[in-house]
Structure formats: C-alpha cells, structure tokens
Amino acid sequence: MTTIQTNTVDPTLLATVNGSKASKTTTEEAQDRFLTLLVTQMKNQDPLNPMDNAQVTSQLAQLSTVSGIDKLNASVTAMSANFQASQNLQAANMIGHGVIAPGSAIGLTDGKAIFGVELPQAADKVEISIKDASGNTVRKLNMGVVPVGVNTMTWDGLTDSGATAANGVYKFEVSASSGENKLDATSLSFGMVSSITSSTQGAKLSVANIGDISMADVRQIY
Asked: Is the model's pTM score more than 0.85?
C-alpha cells in the first residue's frame, strides 16, 4: 500500500515556524521563517502533484520585494533624521536675526517700523492702513506702484495728523490692485528670532510680533 503525502502542513509545525512573537519582527527573522516554511512545504509536497516552479519563484520574488521595501523604509527614516538635524542647526543660527514672514503686526520703536507686502503680480496701487490696539486708523500710506514678489517697507511712526505715534505694536491691512483687478496681497511682519523648537513637524522659530513659524514661512532674513 502506497502512502501519499499531501501539501497540507501540520498546524503544530506552522506554530513552531511562526514562533510565539505577535509583535513586529526584523527582516532577518521574517526571511528565516519564510525559508523554513518554504522548505517544509517542499518536503511535505505530494510526489504526484509537486509544487510548480513558477509558484516557488513567485514566493521568492515576494520575499525579495518585502525585504527591499523594508530596507528602503530604513533608508528614508535615516535621511529624514539627518534632514531634521540639519534643519535644526540652520534654525539655531537664525537666533538673534530679524525675519520677514506672513503676519499683520507692525512694531514701532523710536519712529521706525519695518513691514512688508508680498504680491502675486505687480500692482499699480497699494495702500497700507495702520491701526492702533483699539482698531482706529492712525496712518494711511499710499505706496504707489509696487513690483511682484516680496517688498520690504518702513513706517516713520508719524500719524495722519503729523503727530508721533507711541512705541508699541500696531496692526496693518493691505489693499492692492492692478487696473480694475484686486490682488490677493499677503501682509508681512518683521520680528526678531528669539528661540527655536524642534518637533516631528520640523523646526519652529519663535519670532517677536509674529509668533511660532516654520522655516518655510520666512520670506527674508536680516
């Protein structure tokens, strides 16, 4: 009487191959278990119905793909860590420097204030309205023709009546147009970088009059 073995693997053998770990394993452990299981399948295959070579090749190709993806993930993780370290170092060098970034605050000190406007295209009319803490307009500036991009501007601290405004933080609004078309202008504030904070989202700069911003928010550095 001839005994024919089937392709079904003993559940006890599978449990031994898989091990008792339920958590993630390393690539080497996964490869060892895969190869052990593959060899076991070949040993227990039906002699009258052996495993197809294409099937074995396909399984080996899958293992190679999984291993490649795991190595790629490790490389990307290492690159990300190096990039973050480099960004933190670059951000640290900015402490004590002034920056221009999106914001609506304008700090006046002894008759001098710096701010900016970013335009998507050149404007033939740009107006700046500077307001105090109560929302009252203290000065309107007509900047005339302003080119496309980031434009740095100053306020001498004088009000519309010719008086000198008190030191402090004011707010400003921008109105820009080209012909009959109103432009989507971005107001830019000036502030000094006092510190940095590192997080998984990247380095954050703590800037006076603006708050916490990312490196990508910085338009100009002084």
From this structure: no
